[in-house]
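Long-time lurker. I teach an intro course on protein structure, and each term I like to show students one example going from raw sequence to a predicted 3D structure in token notation. This year I'd like something fresh instead of my usual example. Would anyone be willing to generate the tokens for the chain below so I can use it in lecture? Attribution to the forum is fine with me.
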Amino acid sequence: MKSVVLIGAGNLATQLGLRFKEVGVAIEQVYSRSVDSAKKLADLLSAEFTTETRNIFSADIYIIALADKAFHSVLENIDFKNALILHTAGSISLTELKSYSSNYGVFYPLQTFSKERKVEFETIPICVEANSEENLNEIKKLAQLCSKDVREINSEQRKSLHLAAIFCCNFVNHMYHLSAEVTETHAVDFNILRPLIKETVAKIDLMHPKDAQTGPAVRYDENIMDKHLAQLEDEKLMKELYAKLSKSINYYQNK
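-- Reply from a regular --
Happy to contribute to a lecture. Here you go:
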């Protein structure tokens, strides 16, 4: 079994490390700038840990699971000795690794992760890419241990997927947050919306999102929309967002 070092200890690194452990891929070391994060994940994985790039072990494979803003500032301080480097980012091109090793690729699980919430990894699409056929085959073997859904996706396609994921995950979750703000401001339990949320999500398994769209913005019912906007008079940003989203819904439904 090839030796693996995990660079990062955040949400993705945690769930990926735990999945590797489940399928018998041993993580030898975890790196993080935070002692607490590095030690906590290393303990879960029965691995060593370090917070110093100069102390990172030599390995066959390095998995980079860092925030985009920390990507180059960390990697430029590591001597990878031409080992296989895999990044896990949605919006970083494959070629951004070429200055660190002659063997590099992408291992991008398309999912939202939290440290404390276990995910069904075998159903997660893992998007792979590499600078050579040999490296691609190596990455595929690793990915297929983790998931039944492994896909060759190039950097441009992956960037588009990441953008789409922002809309369908991060932005949608923010809408839940705003819904909670509205209900809690008026002393209504947010839980009353959970069946509605579940049904909205369930529809996506049965129909195209455009066909599932309902509400006053589809028909541009200004009477109802004006009432809602009046309710948001003291929440300027939310009011502006409501108006723009309603306009967007109407435009794309009738495009």
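Some talking points for your students: The domain at 4-152 is CATH 3.40.50.720 (Rossmann fold). The chain has two domains: 4-152, 158-253.
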